[in-house]
Design goal:
Layout: E1 2-10, E2 13-22, H1 25-36, E3 44-51, E4 55-60, E5 64-68, H2 72-85, H3 90-102, E6 115-118, E7 138-140, H4 143-152, H5 157-176, E8 180-184, E9 193-197, E10 201-206, E11 217-222, H6 227-236, E12 238-243
Parallel strand pairs: 4-12, 5-10, 6-11, 7-12
Antiparallel strand pairs: 1-2, 1-3, 8-9, 8-11, 9-10
Helix pairs in contact: 2-3, 4-5
Length: 244
C-alpha cells in the first residue's frame, strides 16, 4: 500500500493539505488528480508518495454529532462543556481556545501540525512549536461509499471531503491515545470546528470563529507519560477506517 500526501503553501504559509492510502496504480493516479485540485490558490506544492508496510484497520469511525450556535462565544462555551465530559479541566480548555484564537505558532500565525497539550496542566509538549505534530497515513476504505452516506445524512456536497478528512484524522488520534481534540480550520471562509474524544465522539460545532478569520489549528490533549509512543503512532503508523 502507498501513502500519498499533499501540502500546499502560499507566501510561505500552509494553505492546504490532504492524505490518501491507495493500493493500486489506478487509485494513486485518481487520488493524485483529486489532491492537485484541493488548494484554491498556492505558489508551492509538495507531493509525497511512500510505501507502507503495515496497515491497521478499524471497523468504525467516531460517531458524528452537529451543533449550531448564533455566536462564537456560545460555541466556545459548548466546546468547554463537551471537553469537560472527557475529563479535560476547564482552565486547560480555555488556554487551548486562547492559543488557537491568537495563532499557535510562536512566530505568529498558524502551525502546520497540532499542539500537544498536557491535559492536566495545560503545558505545551510538542518537540517543535513551529511545526507541531502531524497526524498522517490514514484514510477510508471506501471514500465513494462514504460520500454517499454523508449525503444521505444531509451533509452538503462541498463539505463532504473536508468532513471525511477531519473525521478519519480524529478517529486515528483517539485510537493512538489522544484523550481529546479541539480544532477549527485556518480557511477564512470555513467557520465550523469540532471537538472529539472517545466518549463524546466527533462533535461538529459552528461557528468556532468569525467569517474571514485566517487563524485556526488543532490542540491534542494528551498524557505526558506516553508522549513518544503517541507521537510515533500519529506520525508513522498507517490506519484504514472501514465506515461510519
Amino acid at each position: 500500500m502507498l501513502s500519498l500526501r499533499m501540502r500546499a503553501e502560499k507566501e510561505g504559509k500552509h494553505v492546504s493539505g490532504a492524505e490518501r492510502l491507495v493500493s493500486t496504480p489506478e487509485e494513486l493516479h485518481r487520488a493524485l488528480r483529486e489532491l492537485l485540485k484541493r488548494p484554491r490558490e498556492y505558489d508551492k506544492m509538495f507531493i509525497t508518495v511512500e510505501e507502507v508496510q503495515s496497515v491497521e484497520v478499524l471497523p468504525r469511525a467516531l460517531t458524528i454529532y452537529s451543533h449550531d450556535f448564533r455566536r462564537v462565544e456560545d460555541a466556545h462555551e459548548f466546546a468547554v462543556k463537551k471537553l469537560g465530559e472527557e475529563g479535560i479541566p476547564e482552565k486547560v480548555v480555555r488556554r487551548a481556545l486562547e492559543l488557537l484564537k491568537a495563532g499557535a505558532n510562536p512566530k505568529g500565525g498558524n502551525m502546520r501540525g497540532a499542539v500537544l497539550m498536557d491535559f492536566e496542566s495545560g503545558e505545551r509538549l510538542e518537540p517543535d512549536r513551529e511545526r507541531g505534530v502531524r497526524t498522517v497515513r490514514m484514510d477510508w476504505k471506501d471514500r465513494k461509499g462514504l460520500r454517499k452516506l454523508l449525503k444521505e445524512r444531509g451533509i452538503k456536497k462541498h463539505y463532504t471531503d473536508r468532513l471525511m478528512d477531519a473525521l478519519v484524522l480524529a478517529t486515528k488520534n483517539v485510537h493512538c491515545g489522544v484523550l481529546a481534540e479541539l480544532c477549527w480550520s485556518d480557511d477564512p471562509e470555513y467557520t465550523t470546528g469540532y471537538v472529539a474524544g472517545k466518549g463524546i465522539g466527533y462533535v461538529r460545532i459552528k461557528p468556532m470563529k468569525e467569517q474571514g478569520n485566517p487563524l485556526g489549528g488543532r490542540v491534542y490533549f494528551v498524557r505526558r507519560d506516553r508522549l513518544q509512543e503517541l507521537i510515533e503512532c500519529l506520525e508513522s503508523r498507517a490506519l484504514i477506517v472501514e465506515t461510519l
